[in-house]
Write a structure and sequence with these properties.
The chain has seven helices and nine strands, in the order H-H-H-H-H-H-H-E-E-E-E-E-E-E-E-E. The chain is an alpha+beta fold and about 260 residues long. It has two domains: about 140 residues, no CATH class; about 110 residues, Beta Barrel (Cathepsin D, subunit A, domain 1), CATH 2.40.70. A nine-stranded mixed sheet has the order 4-5-8-3-9-2-1-6-7, with no helix packed on it. A hairpin with a 5-residue loop joins strand 4 and strand 5. Helix 2 runs antiparallel to helix 4 and helix 4 crosses helix 5. The relative contact order is 0.10.
Length: about 260
């Protein structure tokens, strides 16, 4: 019997990725797709111990459990999910292995006389379809949720009206310390061609998740109007500008603070 190592690794990678997906769905823990792919790939390399005789001493229950634990360890940072995730992953692995083995044995007689059907390919096809549908559903839900937080913003600067879309960042509580006004962070390119020299400049200090501090320059425009479900809300705000692109998909060009709609 001829075994192709690349096919074995690919098949085990798909199985591992499928098992990781349903494991994290079960424990209701979100995990980045990149981490899942890395974990699934490293776990798929365990099949090498079956192919090479000199490594077969690693083909045992203890090593299998350790590999499963390391796969979960790569995916999550919280210690409380390590044991739970590992046990559920192993449980799903046993159910999947038992199910495929049952169908393979149960159909053996039929295969010999009528047709040859590869249940392994069927199982892999189902897993691939599940993974694709799961990512599509996640993407659609994520896009829908994001668009619910995007608002049309009109800014008046020296009788010049600027329109752009802003994303309501519920974790953003940025305020200018002197005026105590909420701060809208906007991409600098949106203000191209707008003369803001006559406006008082404010320096706004902000902090990011990793604790690092930064500073933004801003000013108070003549007026800011936000369109919320057809209702226009006028607010006093500070407009700060940054050089970075705020949305990779270019869905919005500004970040709105949480208190902007209150």
């Amino acid at each position: 019997m001829v075994l192709y190592l690349d096919e074995l690794i690919l098949e085990n990678f798909l199985v591992n990725l499928f098992l990781l997906q349903i494991t994290f769905r079960t424990i209701k823990k979100r995990c980045a797709l990149k981490r899942q792919i890395l974990s699934a790939f490293l776990g798929s390399l365990y099949v090498i111990v079956i192919v090479f005789p000199e490594l077969r001493f690693l083909n045992n229950k203890i090593t299998s459990v350790l590999v499963a634990f390391l796969m979960i360890l790569i995916c999550v940072d919280s210690k409380k999910f390590y044991l739970k995730g590992t046990l559920i992953y192993i449980g799903y692995s046993m159910v999947l292995a038992g199910t495929t083995f049952y169908f393979s044995i149960g159909n053996k007689g039929v295969n010999n006389y009528i047709f040859k059907f590869n249940y392994k390919k069927l199982a892999l096809s189902i897993m691939v379809i599940y993974l694709i549908i799961d990512r599509l559903v996640f993407y659609i839900k994520d896009r829908k949720l994001m668009h619910q937080c995007i608002y049309e913003v009109d800014v008046l600067i020296k009788e010049k009206n600027i329109k752009f879309k802003g994303f309501l960042d519920t974790g953003n509580e940025l305020r200018e310390p002197i005026t105590n006004l909420p701060v809208i962070v906007v991409q600098k390119n949106i203000l191209e061609g707008v003369d803001i020299k006559d406006y008082i400049k404010y320096s706004i200090t902000y902090s990011v998740v990793n604790g690092k501090l930064g500073k933004l320059q801003g000013f108070k425009p003549d007026s800011v109007t936000i369109n919320e479900n057809g209702q226009k809300i006028t607010k006093e705000v500070i407009l700060a500008y940054c050089d970075n692109q705020l949305s990779y998909s270019k869905d919005y060009g500004a970040l709105l603070p949480r208190g902007i709609l209150v």
